[in-house]
Design goal:
about 260 residues; two-stranded antiparallel sheet; about 5% strand; two-stranded antiparallel ribbon; mainly alpha; flat
């Protein structure tokens, strides 16, 4: 009886695997079909967001490269299949290329210049300094308008700094999860569980830092001091970005060109 039940379970598992393989094969076949479709047909399949991206990209190609409209269209025709394929997998053009139309046009007009993606640690430091400045600065402004009776409700500087830094690093990693390359992205359940785990860890960390015994190393600073610290953090971020030539968003940085 147990053997029959096991055979039935194995049969169900094999059927599920075959069904998944069949669906994957259909997806791959459709992707291959799109690679050979006429550009005019592909343009009709673009989403509104991707149509806008392609339109602005063509305008930038005309402006930066002094091209005619027809020449710009011919250049973007070569991108349409990969844009539509990525679109089928839920990834818009700006996520596929991690570049605005202006930057993408520059890359297309100067292909001899190799792009080097900004390392994760540099983006993490950049994001951490940005969120550190935002968190500490925001609470500093709030503290300026609070009465002395409510100052005990303020979080200590160690809490603000650590939460800001952790949030900055998490947002950089989150961007890598939801906007990866090659049309593949992290599954929604895994993404939600990861976010929930990080949120729980942050709440536990904040609770630990709020314990009376930790107050000695986690004092509540005057609002003006918080604002000064925020300004220093933002200044450090500016110098860091200048030193490593980081451009664009902290969470989707423009690739370095060499």
């Amino acid at each position: 009886m147990a053997e029959k039940e096991q055979e039935k379970n194995n049969s169900n598992i094999n059927a599920e695997k075959q069904e998944k393989l069949k669906k994957q094969a259909e997806v791959d076949a459709k992707d291959e079909e799109l690679k050979n479709e006429d550009p005019k047909t592909l343009r009709q399949k673009l989403s509104n967001k991707n149509q806008d991206y392609v339109f602005r990209l063509e305008k930038e190609l005309q402006r930066q490269g002094s091209l005619s409209h027809e020449e710009a269209v011919a250049m973007t025709d070569g991108l349409l299949s990969e844009i539509v394929i990525a679109q089928r997998h839920g990834q818009p053009a700006n996520g596929l290329y991690l570049a605005s139309p202006k930057i993408k046009a520059e890359e297309m007009l100067h292909p001899e210049q190799k792009t080097v993606e900004t390392p994760f640690w540099q983006r993490a430091v950049d994001g951490a300094l940005l969120y550190l400045a935002i968190f500490v600065g925001l609470f500093g402004v709030i503290a300026l308008f609070e009465t002395k009776q409510h100052q005990n409700s303020q979080m200590g500087i160690l809490t603000l700094a650590s939460v800001g830094i952790l949030m900055g690093v998490f947002m950089v990693k989150y961007n890598d999860w939801v906007m990866p390359k090659n049309g593949q992205r992290i599954g929604l359940p895994k993404l939600l569980l990861s976010g929930l785990g990080i949120a729980v860890a942050l709440f536990v960390w904040i609770w630990i830092l709020s314990l009376p015994a930790i107050r000695v190393i986690n004092p509540v600073l005057p609002g003006a001091v918080d604002i000064v610290i925020a300004a220093i953090a933002y200044g450090a971020r500016y110098l860091f970005r200048q030193h490593y030539h980081i451009t664009g968003s902290s969470f989707a940085s423009r690739p370095q060109r060499k």
